[in-house]
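Quick question, first post here. What does this chain look like in 3D?
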Amino acid sequence: MAKKAAKEKDSKETPLMKQYNAIKAKHPGALLLFRVGDFYETFGEDAVIASKVLDIVLTKRANGSASHIELAGFPHHSMDSYLPRLVRAGYRVAICDQLEDPKTVKGIVKRGVTELVTPGLSFNDNVLERSRNNYLASVHFGKEELGISFLDLSTGEFLTSCGQPEYIDKLIQSFRPSEIIYSKGCRKKFAEQFEPDCTTYTPEDWVFQYDYAYECLTKHFGTSSLKGFGIENLPEGIVAAGAVLHYLQETEHHDMKHIAQISRIEEDHYVWLDKFTIRNLELIYPQQPDGIPLIQILDQTVTPMGARQLKRWAVLPLKDLVAIRERLDVVESFTRNGELLQELLQSLRHIGDVERLISKVAVGRINPREMLQLKKALKNTLPVKELLAGCDIKPLQKLADQLNPCQFLLDKIEEELQDEVPLVSNQGGMMRSGIDAALDELRKIAYSGKDYLLQIQKREVERTGISSLKIAYNKVFGYYLEVTNSHKDKVPQDWIRKQTLVNAERYITEELKVYEEKIINAESEINTIEQRLFLELVQAASEYVTHIQQNARTLATIDCLSSFAAIALKNRYVRPEVNESYALDIEDGRHPVIERQLPVGEPYVPNDVFLDKEEQQIMIITGPNMAGKSALLRQTALIVLMAQMGSFVPAKRAQLGLIDKVFTRVGASDNLSKGESTFMVEMIETASILNNLSDRSLVLMDEIGRGTSTYDGVSIAWSIVEFLHNHEKFRAKTLFATHYHELNQLSEDFSRIRNFNVSVKEVGDKVIFMRKLKEGGSEHSFGIHVAQMAGMPNKVVIRANEIMHHLEKDKIKDGNKKKLQEVPKNNFQLNLFEADPRFKEVEKVLQETDINIISPVEALLKLNEIKKMMEPAEKK
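> Answer (accepted):
Ran it through. Tokens below.
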């Protein structure tokens, strides 16, 4: 019965819809753009989605004798504007094209999916962001470890690594992939471990098998093993990377020779930054919508490759002292030679995105205008190489050596491609004269036609005596002779009449028809030859893919280091001394982001920070809220990270012992989706720090324990500081900001703990934040003053002050026992009002007075009035 029903359905469907349904069945998870003539059409559910996302009209069409089906489409030339909107909305889009010329086919045109575009796989410039990598990530759940792989299809960058879930989560946070694939059978595990802010896709489980993955990789790279890439002993990473290559095949990406190598992300080479630290320090993305991340200050790059690389440097600071110093040497050279820096930037500005251009060459998707841009990039690479080669500093000469001039390719593009070319290669007018004899001959025929037609016209005028004779062209008749009615009796017998107008007649001749055919054929052949020559040029360029990819990486490095030099000069940064000691000594350090946001003329208040293993391992910093404790913590971490990226730092002087891990616990937010409170999130992040310490760690903790009761909070904070000081293996350098003044006691009990406070100045009932770090603990939090500054109603502020004074008095009297039950009640004044009639009058005056809006003078007058009310009757 089922077969019969299917047969009946088939008989009802139109041939076109049969073809559509067959192709759609092969790509059920993708939105299918089906080419019909000059339009890309979507049908059924796809049409409903497309109409909403693209804001195009949703209609219906008849499907044979079957029911009507939804339809939405757009012109094929609008693909570049509509496709990005679908991909950015998170959809996988299968592009189904006509595989043969409809003019040469009877019946249904052969169609097939030529590309499946996903959020993580695209070459389209409108889908890609210029300054950001577009990574596809693959996660494999192994028995003991997880494997991960990242591919940027647009640049050919292919990376892999493996590790514990925390490390994999950290890499996902750092690389921010646009799409993640993982095994269908691991959906539950993935949901428990990760919360990615991107599209996910789940291939079948068999794709994530070691033998299959190993074969995919060796076949792609044409090698017998993976030892040359340094990933042979990375089984989980191999599986994740193999799944990426399978996914490329599944999405119709077959010729991928620009993916020429795979690299291992070496965990040991980079500073450990957990996902909390990357988020808390706002390295790449701000936590608030109007916030400014560090990268926005550091990024003065002038090439897209440089901008993308700088983001990677920001989340992967170096631990290799030699590499750090090499970067700093280059930055110092640029800061000392401003002329060299400006000349380099001038050339770099004209290079464009050569990394993505050469990827398009490799897959045959480059258009003529992009080929001209490639020529421009090669041309401007030469002066960069010459400038660096002429320097006497080894790191600069090393960078120069890594640049390949690709002179043959540059000359070939220069010789063959016109200076102005069309956007697409089938429009002609791309190739220069003199490179192909047949092309030159055909151009003579096609483009010298005007002279030839004038000769015919002149000859026929002389032969017939028709002085007003003219030769013209239209698409219906081609070339024709037009004769006014007054001369039509002079028309020769061999002319063939084609059209009669009101005032004239139109004729054709055998000579014109032959010439017309010759021109049309010539134009067609010209386009064919030009396309062939352009494809040969692309093929020649594809031989240089590896060289130009290397150029792109080197140019990106030069661009990043130039950017560091530019901001160092602009923002008065100094070269840090990074060494193998365990001390961290910063003099007059500043916060690189906050100092750029201050009003004009307001200086940033710098501070000194010193930490080491022997004398001052932990700094406990007290002081009121808003005084700048959090800024001090963050600026210390940012100075360390900037130094280990290879950048100069905002300080008067900085001597920094190499840091291998940076942990921050600053700020907190609820994770309601997982049922976790602020305090729970705080404790999870703190536990992660305490369980992953090392001797070279930098730990920054801000207001630990504030999410619970005072007693619990003080106890937890106290215990954490003790743990950090007494750790059996490691003496992690720690900045511990707190509002629990009780912790000042710790400096008396432990030798490597010191108390500091961010100073304030009290003027009357107000406080002025000095933002200067001083030795010694602070006894007050000034929280009530901050509440007053925030605009809290005066009634609340006055009452809070009253309670605080009682508690402080009580604390002095009874040690640490705070008898909250003895806090003076808020309504005790009312008992007085009941005792004496005069107080009734006072009560009435007070109730009618709004202390939130009363001026100081009015308050004094009101107080005088109340005083007179309270005077005994005999005095009045």
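The chain has six domains: 2-117, 135-265, 299-406+544-571, 437-535, 577-789, 828-875.
The chain is about 45% helix and 20% strand.
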